[in-house]
Write a structure and sequence with these properties.
By secondary structure, the chain is α+β, with helices and mostly antiparallel strands. Helices cover about 40% and strands about 15% of the residues. The protein has a five-stranded antiparallel beta sheet with strand order 2-1-3-4-5. A hairpin with a 2-residue loop joins strand 1 and strand 2. The longest helix is centred in the N-terminal third of the chain and has 51 residues. About 5% of the residues have low confidence.
Length: about 190
């Protein structure tokens, strides 16, 4: 088969055409970078919510095995419980990793990727999250639920916060785990 050859047709791109194509690609990249950054932040927030849901499942298992009582968890930087005032006789406060390790919670489940990229509290404290039990704005040092006998009903469990991000690293907000297992984003 014979090829037709055009003597007036150029054989390839000129330098100007190549520079125009590179400039267009560069402009598209600059336009897409902020959206790419937001997409990464959303993925980190979703992974954090998944970690908190896993902590919620582990908390539910702990409560089921311990007569409706939540664990006594002390945060490394800001302890909740003091030995002489807040703990029952013979009970010792533990870290989140120690309390939930029997339920499959590993170091990865205690690490928020957004925290690792910003403040990195995981490295210094061993967790990106804080155990902060609170009901309707009032801290509860020793939270207890009773299923059939009653202290908290289902609607109050929805308001009973257990775990929060240590810092507001998700678009200036914190992810929070509630006693009913739900995870919601909250802006301070």
């Amino acid at each position: 088969m014979r090829r037709l050859h055009c003597s007036r047709c150029p054989a390839g791109f000129t330098l100007i055409e190549l520079l125009v194509v590179i400039a267009i690609i560069a402009i598209l990249g600059v336009i897409a970078m902020p959206e790419y950054s937001r997409m990464i932040d959303r993925a980190r927030s979703s992974a954090c919510m998944g970690n908190l849901r896993n902590l919620g499942v582990a908390t539910g298992l702990y409560v089921a095995e311990n007569d409706g009582k939540f664990p006594f968890i002390n945060n490394p930087a800001r302890p909740l419980y003091t030995e002489e005032t807040d703990l029952p006789e013979g009970v010792e406060a533990v870290t989140m990793a120690q309390a939930f390790e029997p339920y499959g919670i590993t170091g990865n489940a205690l690490k928020c990727q957004a925290d690792a990229a910003m403040n990195n509290r995981f490295t210094s404290e061993g967790t990106s999250y804080e155990w902060r039990p609170m009901l309707d704005g009032e801290e509860k040092v020793s939270p207890t639920i009773y299923t059939r006998r009653g202290a908290f009903n289902i609607s109050s469990l929805r308001r009973f916060r257990l775990v929060i991000d240590t810092d507001p690293v998700h678009f200036g907000r914190q992810n929070r785990l509630y006693a009913d297992g739900s995870v919601r984003m909250f802006q301070q």
